[in-house]
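User: I've been going back and forth on whether these two constructs are worth ordering. Before I decide, could you fold them both?

Assistant: Sure. I'll take them in the order you sent them. The first construct and its structure tokens:
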Amino acid sequence: MPTQAEKERLSLLQGTLDVLILRTLLFGPQHGQGIARSIQESSRDELLVEHGALYPALQRLETKCWIAAEWGTSDHNRRARFYRLTKAGRRELIKETSRWRRLAAAIGHVLGPEEV
């Protein structure tokens, strides 16, 4: 049976997308395509979220009650589900942001300074 630390390591990639979605929704409700576009734009086109990963992640976050969804109309007059951050999702985002910053700092220490 995996330890808690092993479970966290196994969910690292899944958790990456989750925290990016939560962060995106911090700025207001958004439909799936808008979430993917926002992540891509805010990462300066370094991150591309594929629909095959996005929608299962949205379902997972909704199941955990970190986001809520309701039907609405997109800018292109199409029916779409709009997702919003819940209070529980906001708490999770704070926790995960702290964890990711610690992880990024630790990786930075291992990689060392950039060579000029």
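The second construct, handled the same way:
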Amino acid sequence: MINRGQIYFANLNPTQGREQAGYRPVLVVSSDAINLQPLVVTVVVGTDARNVPRDYPTNVRVTAKETGLPIDTVFLCFQLRSIDPSRFYHPETHLPNLAGQVPTHRMADIDQAIKLVLNL
């Protein structure tokens, strides 16, 4: 089961314009009640922290140590995207591409950034 706070590697192609593309970490932000449904899962896209030298209120920087990711990552909370659950599974092995987990206290930072993005 896909759960809120989990991080997966997902292929986000195809994209258009300034959308984040390629194979990258995504953080599940939709509720577990939604994630149980055969619908879409809402995620925030992550990028290599070295690519984001400054901190912004709509981004959340996490360390590899706290998440289990191979590198420090910045989750771009203005890059919300709803994707099909099939993107969470490796196309050949059909195993989940689970990469890590954001600690509960850091999810509060993610929630605050999303509130800023959505003016909630």
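Notes on the second construct follow. The domain at 6-118 is CATH 2.30.30.110 (SH3 type barrels.). The chain has three helices and six strands.
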